[in-house]
């Protein structure tokens, strides 16, 4: 079975690897990287076509994973969660998503981003595939939304981005993100009423 991040449900194995990484086990880190980097790179590429930024974000993500694995292990031991679903993969994706937004902000500050480098989703995201398995009415209502409204919902609801982060990710003003989110909620409410 595949979870919402596109990773096989071996989250227990990945959590064990993270606990070992927290104890500075380089072999565990190598194995965790081998297991998680392909799907992480794929998800990042769906949101940004610039291979340089994707490579930078991957590197920054795994440096952070190496340094902060103890915080994930500590959160899991205490029964808390810091990631969607509380999984190791969710925790890693959260780090990567934040790093992607940071990289896009940095690029926007240093130069005007050419249109061909704006974040785009070139292939259906795992979230879109997952949404197909939920209730038929909701799936139909989501599919009937305009693409720009679905894109905002995916970023804010599924990926957990803030309005500001969604604005940077999609390359639209924050007010546009807010109005699209409101329009999407209203359209879903009407379709499901």
UniProtKB/TrEMBL annotation:
GO molecular function, one term: sigma factor activity
Domain spans labelled RNA polymerase sigma factor 70 region 4 type: 137-188
Keywords per UniProt: Sigma factor, Transcription, Transcription regulation
Highest rank taxon of the organism: Bacteria
One Gene Ontology biological process: DNA-templated transcription initiation
Homology family: Belongs to the sigma-70 factor family. ECF subfamily.
Record's protein name: RNA polymerase sigma24 factor
């Amino acid at each position: 079975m595949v979870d919402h991040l596109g990773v096989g449900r071996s989250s227990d194995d990945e959590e064990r690897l993270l606990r070992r990484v927290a104890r500075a086990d380089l072999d565990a880190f190598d194995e965790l990287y081998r297991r998680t980097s392909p799907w992480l790179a794929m998800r990042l590429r769906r949101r940004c076509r610039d291979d340089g930024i994707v490579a930078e974000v991957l590197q920054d993500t795994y440096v952070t994973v190496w340094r902060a694995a103890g915080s994930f292990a500590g959160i899991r031991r205490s029964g808390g969660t810091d990631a969607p679903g509380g999984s190791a993969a969710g925790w890693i994706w959260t780090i990567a998503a934040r790093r992607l937004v940071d990289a896009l902000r940095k690029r926007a500050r240093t130069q005007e981003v050419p249109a061909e480098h704006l974040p785009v989703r070139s292939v259906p995201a795992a979230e879109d595939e997952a949404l197909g398995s939920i209730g038929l009415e909701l799936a139909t209502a989501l599919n009937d939304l305009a693409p720009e409204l679905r894109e905002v919902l995916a970023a804010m609801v599924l990926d957990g981005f803030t309005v500001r982060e969604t604005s940077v990710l999609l390359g639209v003003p924050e007010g546009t993100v807010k109005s699209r989110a409101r329009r999407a909620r209203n359209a879903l409410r009407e379709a499901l009423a």
